[in-house]
Design a protein that fits this description.
Blueprint: H1 7-32, H2 35-60, H3 66-94
Length: about 100
């Protein structure tokens, strides 16, 4: 592991992640007027995005710990659902 994170890469990922949530989850949820869609599509989006990284590492890197993969997949799912839920609620309350 690197002694310190590459902040540019980390910020770039999270900006892309947010853009993806807005495009693939939040906008369709608002069009459907469905909080349930926002939560479950957000959860799935988080799972898929985090799985891309973690399952690739698990498949290609020697000694990649399966527990890290499981924790990251849970985190990605939680993050996607939570951000989608909060964003949907805020935008709905503001009547955008």
């Amino acid at each position: 592991m690197s002694p310190s994170p590459n902040w540019i890469a980390a910020i770039a990922f999270y900006l892309l992640y947010i853009a993806g949530l807005v495009f693939f989850v939040i906008a369709p949820a608002l069009d459907k007027r469905s909080l349930d869609y926002a939560i479950f599509a957000g959860m799935f989006f988080g799972l898929v995005t985090y799985a891309t990284y973690d399952l690739t590492n698990y498949a290609t890197l020697k000694d990649w710990p399966v527990i890290i993969t499981v924790i990251d997949l849970a985190w990605g799912s939680f993050l996607g659902a939570t951000v989608s839920f909060l964003t949907y609620q805020i935008i709905s309350k503001l009547n955008w």
